[in-house]
């Protein structure tokens, strides 16, 4: 049976005593905006001159590891008190509502599958042990445009709509919405997204790639709950895949960013997803899009285009997923022959600069750059005060800054400007974010703040003056909003820093 749990835990006298972070902006989805730019759009509280004064404000234990990032909403009314609140989903399927000023957990909402439900899926004890032991989600919630509710993925194959103030489940208009028919072997690993009047969710397999799964995108029209599906394999089937509906598999959509929404008005809100391994035959008129970037209409009704590296078969043969990271969308470049471009990394350690209007099909990249390692993080995309476009990449042992340059003949290319070997993680590397020209990222044991133009270290949470620091990280990454820095870690903690 699916379990759901919610609770209020904060006395009003303590609520009134809390100091609410400075009023400014929300951080409503992973990467701040639907394009996953990672750029803080709030007031410019932190600067290169004061960021070194960041201090520990609070640390809490969630009681479970949240291998993801929180989101933040302001002006959540609980009784007569307005809160700034964080929302984060742990790997065990529990979503937390947390007071952002004090770190107090105000409510919990839990989902799970019982062992008996998994037993009903398969009598094979070996498969049962594999899938039951691996039941996790790495998803990040997304805020409803109203600012009064959030969407959170569960372990039960559904996305749930929750009241932001209480954690109570809000039913109706299609919610809770099912995004997979086979939650025993298929999960929501990526962050949810909200744009164009839709909720977007993506799916992949669990660690170990135990079949069956078929990575797909689900859109949910928020006005009435109407759903659409696009499967990366057997894509002519527009229904949620079953355990037997597609003879192929292993094409998960599992990057941190999941579905990425184009911010350029000329692109009409189309979305992009990058797939992992799996068959590819679209160049021959087939329905399979393994190791590809797909461009889809906002309602998923139309496949607009695709990009697939020419070496797609080698990527599939050696488990070198293109979709280990999300497409990063560069801002329009008026001087370029290809004004709309995207950047796609992968496990193959190659960064591809690609025209996205339209996507080129097989090969035909504008540029290929060798990277220091596989890319698992979501790049941050920043435009500096001189209107120059930058991207920042987080690796397991360093953070790299690249700038886009367009020549006099309109040819664009990326150039690495700096490399900051400030720390390391034994895992894949986390996703950087940018606030007021400062790059923030997390590695094992520390959050770092770097000058976006030259990679110079401005602050580290490992400094004694900062107070206690964070633990090891996997896909946890910081958010920076209204002058506060929040980050979870593999110890099951969520930590907040702010100016004194």
Please describe what this structure looks like.
- There is one protein chain.
- The chain is mainly beta and 500 residues long.
- The protein has 4 helices and 35 strands.
- The strands form 9 sheets. A 5-stranded mixed sheet has the order 16-17-18-19-23, with no helix packed on it.
- A hairpin with a 5-residue loop joins strand 6 and strand 7 (149-153).
- Helix 2 crosses helix 3.
- It is globular and about 60 Å long.
- It starts with 11 loop residues before the first helix and ends with a strand.
Main traits of this protein?
single chain, 500 residues, Methanol Dehydrogenase, Chain A, 4-stranded antiparallel sheet, 4 helices, disordered N terminus
End-to-end distance, in Å? 47 Å
Name the CATH architecture: 8 Propeller
Number of domains: 1
In the sheet with the most strands, the strands line up as: 16-17-18-19-23
At the first level of CATH, the class is Mainly Beta
Largest sheet: 5 strands, mixed
Helix fraction, binned, reads under 10%
Q: Structural class of the secondary elements?
A: mainly beta
Contiguous low-pLDDT stretches (5 residues minimum) are: 1-23, 114-133
Q: In one word, what is the shape?
A: globular
Please provide the count of β strands: 35
Rounded Rg:
21 Å
Q: Which percent band covers the strand fraction?
A: 25-35%
> What is the CATH third-level topology name?
Methanol Dehydrogenase, Chain A
The assembly state of the depicted protein chains is: single chain
Number of helices: 4
CATH superfamily: Quinoprotein alcohol dehydrogenase-like superfamily
Average pLDDT across residues?
91
């Amino acid at each position: 049976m699916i379990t759901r749990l919610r609770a209020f835990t904060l006395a009003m006298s303590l609520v009134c005593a809390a100091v609410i972070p400075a009023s400014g902006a929300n951080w409503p989805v992973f990467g701040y905006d639907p394009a996953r730019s990672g750029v803080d759009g709030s007031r410019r509280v932190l600067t290169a001159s004061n960021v070194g004064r960041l201090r520990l404000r609070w640390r809490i234990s969630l009681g479970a590891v949240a291998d993801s990032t929180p989101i933040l909403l302001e002006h959540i009314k609980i009784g007569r008190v307005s809160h700034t609140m964080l929302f984060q989903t742990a790997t065990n399927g529990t979503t937390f509502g947390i007071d952002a000023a004090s770190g107090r957990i105000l409510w919990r909402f839990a989902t799970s599958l019982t062992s008996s439900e998994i037993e009903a899926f398969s009598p094979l004890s070996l498969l049962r042990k594999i899938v039951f032991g691996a039941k996790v989600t790495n998803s990040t919630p997304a805020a409803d445009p109203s600012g009064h509710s959030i969407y959170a993925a569960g372990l039960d194959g559904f996305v749930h709509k929750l009241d932001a103030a209480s954690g109570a489940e809000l039913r109706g208009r299609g919610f809770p919405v099912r995004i997979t028919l086979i939650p025993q072997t298929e999960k929501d690993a990526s962050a949810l997204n909200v744009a164009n009047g839709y909720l977007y969710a993506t799916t992949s397999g669990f660690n170990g790639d135990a079949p069956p799964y078929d990575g797909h995108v689900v859109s949910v029209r928020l006005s009435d709950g109407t759903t659409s599906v696009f499967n990366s394999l057997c894509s002519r089937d527009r229904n949620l895949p079953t355990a037997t509906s597609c003879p192929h598999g292993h094409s998960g959509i599992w990057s941190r960013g999941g579905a990425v929404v184009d911010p350029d008005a000329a692109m009409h809100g189309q979305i992009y997803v990058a797939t992992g391994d799996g068959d590819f035959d679209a160049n021959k008129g087939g329905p399979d899009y393994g190791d590809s970037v797909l461009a889809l209409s906002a309602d998923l009704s139309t496949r607009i285009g695709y990009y697939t590296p020419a070496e797609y078969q080698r990527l599939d043969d050696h488990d070198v997923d293109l979709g280990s990271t999300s497409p990063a969308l560069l801002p329009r470049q008026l001087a370029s022959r290809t004004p709309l471009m995207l950047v796609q990394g992968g496990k193959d350690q190659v960064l591809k600069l690609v025209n996205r209007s339209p996507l080129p099909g097989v090969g035909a990249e504008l540029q290929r750059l060798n990277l220091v390692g596989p890319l698992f993080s979501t790049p941050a995309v920043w435009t500096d005060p001189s209107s120059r476009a930058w991207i920042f990449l987080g690796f397991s042992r360093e953070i790299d800054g690249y700038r886009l340059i367009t020549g006099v003949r309109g040819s664009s290319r990326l150039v690495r400007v700096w490399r900051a070997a400030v720390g390391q993680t034994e895992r894949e590397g986390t996703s950087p974010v940018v606030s007021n020209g400062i790059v923030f990222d997390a590695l094992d044991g520390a959050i770092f703040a770097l000058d976006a133009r030259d990679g110079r270290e401005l602050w580290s949470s490992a400094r004694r003056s900062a107070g206690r620091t964070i633990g090891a990280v996997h896909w946890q990454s910081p958010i920076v909003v209204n002058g506060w820095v929040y980050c979870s870690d593999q110890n099951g903690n969520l930590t907040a820093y702010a100016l004194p």
